[in-house]
Amino acid sequence: MQILDGKIVSQTVKNNIKEKTIAFTASGNKTPHLAAILVGSNGASETYVASKVKNCEEVGFKSSLLRFDENIAETELTAAIEKLNADDDVDGILVQLPLPKQINEEKIINLINPEKDVDGFHPVSIGKMVQGSPTFIPATPYGILLMLEHYKIETSGKHAVVIGRSNIVGRPISILLSRNTYPGNCTVTVCHSRTTNLKEICLQADIIVAALGIPEFLKGDMVKENAVVIDVGITRVADASKNRLCH
Fold it and tell me: How high is the pLDDT of residue 240?
């Protein structure tokens, strides 16, 4: 059995980005600047945003974190995004999801300038991704592609099963794996929690991407020998002493 270690891939990618950033700024260009917006204090969101800020620092990017109270009015959040859209020093904008119930997530995503939509969630970004045009790609699906590429996993002609249908991971990765490129050229089946014959479908898979967000959902008896399994679902679970991240 081979372990696909995401930490190794991550460090390789960051080292490459750092080298490019040094060369980019040495040529007289401005330091890339990412602005992140965090609303409330969701545990998983805090973890994600802290990681993004830390990674920016590691690769030589400038980052700004804008924190807002859980009860923020939609108009206030809208004004903050419009200000970032107009700020020429800001190259990328991301709004950490989920947002509180009083905020219309679709409206907020659509408000971000597609040229700064580093999350790749804007309809313009999604449309370009579907067409195979250059664009921002959602981070987790793109990370899956980099993982497959790093370990030279053969994907052409393989049956890939994606468990999960979110706009953040499941749907994008199903599209990306079906593209006529590498990694890609898979026959893709999208499943979810209500798929009745999920075990039988998974046992047919050469590649399984588990992105359901339900801890320990994929069992060993659902995976055939020599299948490639990439688990990207993370859930914060309460233990007796503290919260822990569980796949």
Answer: 52
Q: What is the dihedral of CA 130, 85, 53, 72, to 10 degrees?
A: -100
Q: What whole-number distance in Å separates Cα of residue 222 and Cα of residue 197?
A: 11
Residues 55-93 pLDDT 10s:
999 999 999 999 999 999 999 999 999 999 999 999 999
Instruction: Name the strand (E) or helix (H) holding 33.
Output: strand 33-39
Between 48-57, 106-115, 233-242, the lowest mean confidence (pLDDT) is in 233-242
Q: Please tell me the number of Cα atoms within 13 Å of 41 on its side-chain side.
A: 1
Whole-prediction pTM: 0.88
DSSP-based three-state secondary structure for 145: helix
Amino acid at 79: A
CATH number of 139-239: 3.40.50.720
Superfamily of domain 6-24+31-131: Leucine Dehydrogenase, chain A, domain 1 (3.40.50.10860)
Give me the torsion for CA of 48, 49, 51, 55, rounded to 10°: 130
Distance of alpha carbon 74 from the chain centroid: 24
Active site residues: 52, 96, 119
